[in-house]
Amino acid sequence: MANIKSQKKRILTNEKARQRNAAVRSELRTAIRTVGTAVDAADKDAANAAMVAAGRKLDKAVTKGVMHKNAAANRKSAISKKVAAL
């Protein structure tokens, strides 16, 4: 444990940010998985709706600093290709 007061504060805020980022990443994975299950079930309407929701969550993760914008763009591209292939 650090002795410096500001470093103790940073440890606390870093832990809060880590937990928040983990929650956002978990939501992202769930949203992307939902698109995959809709595609596997060949349900075009559900896949489109899930793709829109996942795209929003990806964009939100970028603005929160959880994910790089190019990584999010690659994920969005991949899920849109899957949905377009239906």
* Spatial separation of the terminal alpha carbons: 54 Å
CATH 2nd-level architecture: Up-down Bundle
Give the mean pLDDT: 96
Helix/strand structural class: mainly alpha
Q: Quick one: how many beta strands?
A: 0
**How would you describe the shape?**
elongated
Tally of domains: 1
Number of helices: 3
Organism: Paeniglutamicibacter cryotolerans
GO cellular component, one term: small ribosomal subunit
Protein name: Small ribosomal subunit protein bS20
Keywords: Ribonucleoprotein, Ribosomal protein, RNA-binding, rRNA-binding
Description of the molecule:
By secondary structure, this protein is an all-alpha fold. It has one domain (5-84): Up-down Bundle (Methane Monooxygenase Hydroxylase, Chain G, domain 1). Helices cover 85% and strands 0% of the residues. The protein contains 3 helices and no strands. α1 runs antiparallel to α2 (44-64) and α1 packs parallel to α3. The radius of gyration is 17 Å and the shape is elongated. It starts with a helix and ends with a helix. The mean pLDDT is 96.
Gist of the model:
The chain is mostly helical.
Topology:
Elements: H1 5-40, H2 44-64, H3 69-84
Helix pairs in contact: 1-2, 1-3, 2-3
What tags apply to this protein structure?
mainly alpha; Methane Monooxygenase Hydroxylase, Chain G, domain 1; 3 helices; elongated; ribosomal protein; rRNA-binding
